[in-house]
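Proteins fold. Shown next:

***
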Amino acid sequence: MYPVSKQRLRLWVRLLRSARAIEAELRERLRVEFAITLPQFDVMAALARKEEGMIMTELSRFLMVSNGNVTGIIDRLVAEKLVLRQAPAEDRRAFVVRLTPKGASQLAAIAKVHQGWVDDLLSDFDSAEVETMIQHLDGLASRVRGGAARQWQNYTRPKQHNV
């Protein structure tokens, strides 16, 4: 049996490995089936949540990526007429982005297939197992958000090691 600190590290690696495996499979399927990247899909899905659109900074925060990353993705989606980018009259420095009707229609089709893929990838888990995992992961996220900041503030950095 491993010490609990080692078990937690192993858990983190397993969570990361599992998420990356699923993500890699979804990336490939989106590329092959729809000629779209996962980040493009993520941006479109985020925009679908707000019919009135989002300013670029809000979109970046929602997706937890830099403004620069979002700008490149938006540029490609605008070129494909899937997203519209407009500067509001009250603030010419900010841009509001929203799905076009074509983008909304394409997203609806992709999202339906995407949901089926995820369902297939996780089909070995029954409803009760899925619900248990969701509860555990939600709890984990809450604990990390709530406790990590406090722990980090009280953290005493160990002496630097030469690597």
Summary: The first strand starts at residue 54 and ends at 55. The helical segments are 4-34, 38-48, 56-63, 67-79, 101-121, 127-153.
